Every structure is written in C-alpha cells, then in structure tokens.
Amino acid sequence: MMPSVLRGACLAAVLLLGATPLRAETINVTIDNFTFTPAQVTVKVGDTVTWTNHDDIPHTVVSAGKYRSKTLDTDDSFSFTFAARGDYTYFCSLHPHMTGLVKVE
Q1: Gyration radius of the chain over CA positions
Q2: Residue 85's closest CA among 69, 68, 102?
C-alpha cells in the first residue's frame, strides 16, 4: 500500500503536469501590403510567433527592448519564442506606421 503522503504527492504531480501544455505552438504572422496580418495575436508562454515578409520590399519586426529582427527581404522570416506573460507591441523600424501586438497569456 502507498503511504498517503506519497499518494498525495503523486496526485499533485499528475494534476500539475496535466495543466502544462504538452507542446508549444507556432503562430504565423504575414507581412504583406505594409501590414502585419493578423495585427494582434494571443499566445501562451512558450509559443513561438513567426513573421514572414511577403512584400517585395524589406521590413523589420521590432519590440523595443524585447526583440529585433534583421531586415527581412521577400520571403524571409523571423521567429521569437515568448517566455513571459505580457503585451508585446511591435513595429517595422523602416515603416513605423506598421504596428502589431502579441498578447502572451
């Protein structure tokens, strides 16, 4: 017979593991016609967002103090994995009117 303390610890471990996502996701954002689409995404901690430039001119993806892509030419991509909750606003440093938001839950 398993002691009740050990049985309780096992149950707690199962419950905690069950609440943890088994696999992180990748969410895609396209850059086309001077816009990020979708302009706002909601992800979970550990998920990755990948931006892909489909315009025929370069763009960047910049969240001040958080992440910064290199200049993305046509069909280039940039990915960032979000490790902390929060709202991450971003923009294209070459075309600052282009903005977006990643909400991490």
Answers
A1: 19
A2: 102
Contact, 42 vs 103, CB < 8 A? Answer: yes
How far apart are the C-alpha atoms of 73 and 52, rounded to whole Å? 9
pTM of the prediction? 0.79
**CA-CA distance, 38 to 100, in Å (whole number)?**
8
21-31 residue pLDDT tens: 568 899 999 99
Is residue 73 helix, strand or coil?
coil
Beta strand pairing status for 48-53 and 62-63? unpaired
Distance CA 105, CA 98 (A): 24
Q: Distance (Å, rounded) from C-alpha 60 to C-alpha 23?
A: 28
Structure tokens, 62: 């910049």
**Of 18, 85, 102, 87, residue with least CA distance to 45:** 85
Return d(Cα 17, Cα 55) in angstroms, integer: 42
Pairing status of strand 40-43 against strand 99-104: parallel
